[in-house]
Amino acid sequence: MAEELITVGEIVNAHGVTGAVRVLPCTDFPERFASMHEARVRLKDTQRVFTIERTFPHKRFIIMKFREVNDMNAALALKGGLIQVARNELMALPPGHYYIFDIVGLEVFTIAGERLGVVSRVLRTGANDVYVVRGDDEELYLPALKSVVRAIDLEARRMVVVLPEGLR
Questions:
Q1: Which of 50, 65, 83 is nearest to 14 (CA)?
Q2: Same domain as 53, residue 28
Q3: Looking at the structure, do residues 52 and 27 belong to the same domain, yes or no?
Q4: pTM, two decimal places
Q5: Residues whose CB falls within 8 Å of the CB of residue 122, separated by 6 or more in sequence, listed in order
Q6: What is the pLDDT of residue 166?
Q7: What's the structural domain count of the chain?
Q8: Cα(98)–Cα(93) distance, rounded to whole angstroms?
Q9: Using one digit for the tens of pLDDT, what is the confidence trace for 72-122?
Q10: Which structural domain range is residue 57 located in?
Q11: CA distances, 120 to each of 81, 130, 143, 157 (Å)
Q12: pLDDT digits 0-9 by tens, 12-60
C-alpha cells in the first residue's frame, strides 16, 4: 500500500532571484517548517524530495530555500507544488483532538444508533468547529462540542453524537 501523505504547505511563488520559494502553510503548526531538513514536493503527477537549506517566516508565508533550486526560474517551476509529510511526521495532538482530514468521512450515529450520515466537511468558525453531516435527505451542522460529540473512533470510522434540542 502506498504511504499516506498529508499536505502541510503549498508553494505559491518564487521569492527573490536565488531560487527560494514562498510557501503558504496548510497547517495549524507552521513552526514545523523550521525543523524540517527535507521537503517532499508533489507537483502534478510527480514527487521530488528537496534538501532544505533554510526557512524563515515572512508575513503569512514560509520562505524555503532548497539546495537543488538555484534561480528564480527553477523556483517558479515549483509553483503549485504541495509540500507533504507522512502521517508519522505529523505534529502530535492533545488527547481528544483530531486532524480535520481524519474527521471528514466518518459515519455519524446518534447514541440510539440512528445513522445520520457522513461528515462531508469541517467548518472552522473560530468559536468551535462545525461538522457538516450529509445524510440521505438532509444536511446537519453539528457543533464540535463535547456535549454533542460523545465518541470518535477513527479505526471504525465512526462518530457518536447527541443531537442538540431543535437541531432538526
A1: 65
A2: yes
A3: yes
A4: 0.78
A5: 100, 103, 104, 129, 130, 131, 132, 144
A6: 82
A7: 2
A8: 7
A9: 999 999 999 999 999 889 888 888 889 999 999 999 999 999 999 999 999
A10: 5-88
A11: 25, 11, 14, 13
A12: 999 999 999 999 999 989 999 999 999 999 999 899 999 999 999 999 9
